[in-house]
Fold this protein.
Amino acid sequence: MSVRSYGLVLGPLAALALAGCQETTTTAARPRVDAPGVPVSVQSISGAPDQVTAHFAGLLGEAAAERKMEIVPGDKPARFRVRGYLTAQPTEDGQTALAFVWDVYDESKKRAQRVQGESLGRRGGGSDPWAGIDQTIVAKAASESADAIASFLTTAPVPEPKEDAKSKTRTAQAAPEKKR
């Protein structure tokens, strides 16, 4: 499955979002936060082998649902759109780290937030760092990603409603004329 098609699959599965100024958030032991009512779409997850990406996407979708995040398909209106990247790398002590980075974009397509973190895996076995990433580490990274995004969603400023030209025209027409 191509990276593009994951974006279509992931839209309804997971959501990550962050808004405000362009800040970076690194995950740390955070409490679980529920974030209902903010439409989010996951546009892509790249960097990992297909099998890891598919597993991560499913777990991310489950974690988002547990946090009451409103996940929408990629072609539907969303307040935030998220693009993510996963990488596996050896650590100095011989373990393997699954690192994740999520860029969250607002409705105007400006990056509003970056969330990043890593989960440590078992000791690597050979030249492929992905071999040191097991299902437990993938699940932990998905949960930490959802926590970070939900935390942002609960603090993201609510955009002001936009008045459209029709409502302005109707309001002007409905106003009574002043007589002198």
Remarks:
- Strands lie at 23-26, 39-46, 70-71, 80-90, 95-105, 111-123.
- The CA atoms of residues 21 and 172 lie 36 Å apart.
- The first strand starts at residue 23 and ends at 26.
